[in-house]
Structures are given as C-alpha cells and as structure tokens.
Design a protein that fits this description.
seven-stranded parallel sheet, Oxidoreductase DRL-like catalytic domain-containing protein, 13 helices, about 20% strand, globular, about 450 residues, NAD(P)-bd_dom_sf, alpha/beta, nine-stranded mixed sheet
C-alpha cells in the first residue's frame, strides 16, 4: 500500500483550483500548500475546497510556511519557492507563464521533486531538455491527465501497446460547431455563421472527402479558427509520440464523429492523408441534440490482421472499406482528473503511462522535432511587447524545430513578454531577427542547451 502523496500546486486559476479541491475526493494525494502571484486566488482555492478559514494561513516565505505547516495549517503563499517547505513528492505547475514554468522546473529539479507540467507553454519549447534533466536525476517530468496532450499521448501509447497501427491521432476543440438547421446557422461559442443556401455541405460527407471538406470549411470560414494553445498541445503530443502534424496550419476538419475515420485515413482508402502517422485537430460538427466530443482526444487505428480489424469495425465508426476505425475519449476534465497523474508521478511513473501500466509499448523518445511558431496577424511595431496565446497579434503554425539563427522562427512561447526588435509586417514569420533577446531568461538558456544536447531528429 502506497502512502498518500504530498503535492504542492503553483498557479490557482481554474485548473489549479480543481486540483486543490479534488484532493478531498481522492485517497492518494494531499495538497497542504498552494502558491499564486495573487495570494487571494491561492486562498480562494482552499475556500473552494470547503476548508474553513481558521484552517488556512498565509505565508510570505518558505520559513514561515514551514512553521505554519507544523501547526497543521493549509498554507497559501505568493512565493513560489515557499511550496518546498511542504517537502512535496510532486509539484504541479499550473502557471501558464513560460518563463515562470522554466524557473519552477529547475527549482523542482534542484530540490529533487517530481514535476507535472500543466503549464504547457514552456514544455512546448524546452520539453526535451527538461525531460532529460529530470530523468538523469531519477525524477519524473510529465504531462497530465486532464490536459489534452497528456491524454492524447496516453491514448496513442495504449493503441500501440494493443498492437494497433495509429493512422491518425488528435484532439477535438473545446468549442463545437452546433448546427441549427431551422435557423440556418452554425454556432461556435458566441460566434454564429449564417449558412443559408449552403446547408448541403453540412450534411454527411459523400463522395470525394477532400472536396466535400473544402466546401464545408468555406461555409464555416466566418467562425474563428483554433487558438495558439491548441497548436501548443498538439506539438507536445507530436514530440511525445513521433507523429507528424498534417500540415503547418493543421487541417482543423469540421466533422461529425461518424466522419472522422473516413476523412483521417489514407487516400487509397477514401480519406485525405497521403500517409498514416499524422496528428491533427477536429472541430466537432453536430446538431443541438447530438452527442459531441467534449474536447476529448481520438485515434484512427488499423489492426494488422483481418479478424481483429473486423472486431474494430464492428465496435466503432469506421471508413467505407472498414480499413480505419475511430476510437475516442469524449472528455478532458482538467484538474479534476490530474490527481491521478500526480499520484503516479510521486511513485516515479510517467503520467502518460496510465492506460498501459504493465503492458509493453515501444514509443520513440521525446524529441523536440516540432515547434509552435508565430506569424504576424497584423503589423507589429518595433518595441511592441509580444503577447501570449490570446489576442489579435498572431496566427500560429507547427513547423520542424530549428536551431537558433537570424532567419529561424522563434518558438512561440519564447516570444511572450519580449519586445519586437523591428517592424513585422502582417503575414511574416516571426524569426530571431525580429526579437530583442531578453537579458536574463532561463527559458532561452534552456532552449540553447537543448539545441546543443538533445537530438531533434
């Protein structure tokens, strides 16, 4: 019987708060200390968990936190280093700030603490070197249950461990395309596209998949495309599985669940792919009363013998010749399910091995084969500060990773908070010559070390 894992959480937004509150419903974990740059938010995470205020106390630093923990208090702080006062088995980074995540990772490494990286921004740029550094010290650095990239890596591992060939894998966008046939509209969150006279392209695809898909995408063009965070998750999943993005901008196919295997298979089997082994994102198309994908993850698979393939085709949606079948997980529950990963990491297990525990699975080592990069969505003036994933500044791509050079694209989350060195015109790929390098950045230092030490091919 394992003892309960001691966990610390840094970053108490929606995700981190869910981890903190869920501890009282999960036997194997305890979160005695949480940190956030806004101490009130850290306190609120414990209040949301139902703890009375008298059991919660603020600590300004590690020494104060250690003293309070000895009294049995649940401690909140705005000093990230103070969380080590709890001597955690595992640290959960939910900051979403790439530079902060780099510093947190190295602090955990220095203290001998396993790390679950919910803050995926740094992971997308320096995940390979961080995994290497943690492994060299016998520690775990891992993505999480609840985050789509962690769940997708896990699902791919399970499919391969089960002897299946992964033709395609991916995630569904959180927002779904909801077709109101009576109103002649398709809704995505608060955005609406009028499809009057174009409803035929929304009906089940028939005939040429590529042609039908192009017509459907044209009808839905007024709706917003994927965000930078979507690309970030898929790049990490590609680096962790050896799969390749379908194209730099991603296909982002608007599909019914029943159409996915018919589209994401090879052309000789009626689909759009030149070859198998790709990763992409679907936008779930459904009517108001239809079942959706819930922001879940999927694999399109094939068994290498006819008998097993017939079983697959009988169990789930498949393409016309039954050579490709869809398997999917119709939800991702963010911090509600992340305690599962924290418990595994505290025991020295990779968080993405949950579905294959005890099974043999050949997976390529994690490599920085792909980077998330930016193009200018509008003109960006010299001196302007680069934003993160949200806002009107960027469009996003996934490209093969390159070493630093004036004309090489800067990994997207290495831009955040830095300044444009010169004017960048709309549509330009943002490269190192466009960026004023930061004076003191662990993220940039780690990237330089990664390019020297880690095989990206």
């Amino acid at each position: 019987m394992y003892e309960r894992a001691e966990c610390a959480v840094i970053g108490t937004g929606q995700y981190g708060t869910a981890v903190v509150t869920q501890q009282f419903s999960v036997r194997g974990i305890r979160v005695r200390i949480v940190a956030d740059i806004d101490a009130k938010k850290a306190q609120n995470a414990y209040l949301a968990a139902g703890l009375p205020e008298k059991e919660i106390a603020y600590a300004a630093d590690e020494k104060a936190a250690a003293a309070l923990l000895k009294t049995g208090k649940y401690v909140y702080t705005d000093d990230a280093n103070a969380v080590f006062a709890a001597h955690p088995d595992v640290l959960c980074d939910c900051t979403g700030n790439p530079e902060a995540s780099a510093r947190i990772a190295l602090a955990a490494l220095d203290r001998g603490v396993n790390l679950v990286a919910v803050g995926k921004e740094a992971d997308s740029a320096v995940g390979a070197i961080l995994r290497k550094k943690f492994a060299e010290k016998g520690l775990v650095y891992t993505a999480a249950d609840g985050d789509q990239h962690g769940l997708l890596i896990q699902l791919v591992k399970w499919a391969r461990a089960s002897g299946l060939t992964v033709i395609a894998a991916g995630k569904s966008r959180d927002g779904e395309l909801v077709w109101n046939e009576a109103a002649h509209t398709v809704r995505l969150w608060d955005f609406t596209a009028d499809v009057t006279g174009r409803e035929e392209v929304l009906r089940p695809l028939a005939g040429n998949a590529a042609k039908g898909l192009a017509a459907r995408k044209a009808a839905l063009a007024p709706l917003p495309s994927a965000g930078g965070y979507d690309y970030c998750e898929l790049a990490i999943a590609a680096n962790g599985t050896g799969l390749s993005p379908a194209c730099p901008e991603l296909v982002q196919a608007p599909l019914r669940i029943s159409e996915i295997a018919s589209v994401y298979c090879e052309r000789e089997h009626g689909g759009i792919l030149e070859r198998g082994g790709i990763i992409d994102m679907v936008q779930c198309l459904r009517r108001e009363d239809d079942f959706g994908m819930g922001g879940g993850v999927y694999v399109v698979v094939r068994a290498e013998n006819g008998y097993s393939q017939s079983i697959l085709a009988d169990k789930g949606p498949s393409n016309a010749d039954h050579s490709a079948c869809l398997l999917f997980r119709p939800y991702h529950l963010c911090g509600v399910e992340t305690p599962n990963t924290l418990i595994r990491a505290a025991r020295g297990l990779d968080g993405t091995d949950g579905l294959i525990f005890g099974l043999e699975c050949e997976m390529p080592p994690y490599r920085q084969a792909w980077d998330v990069v930016r193009t200018a969505k509008r003109d960006i003036a010299a001196g302007e500060i680069f934003a993160g994933d949200h806002g009107d500044m960027f469009d996003t791509l996934i490209l093969p990773a390159r070493t630093r050079g004036p004309l090489a694209p800067v990994p997207a989350h290495m831009l955040t908070g830095n300044a444009a060195a010169k004017t960048i015109r709309k549509g330009e790929l943002i490269t190192y010559e466009h960026v004023t390098p930061p004076d003191d950045s662990l993220l940039w230092t780690l990237r330089e070390e990664q390019e020297k030490d880690c095989d990206r091919t």
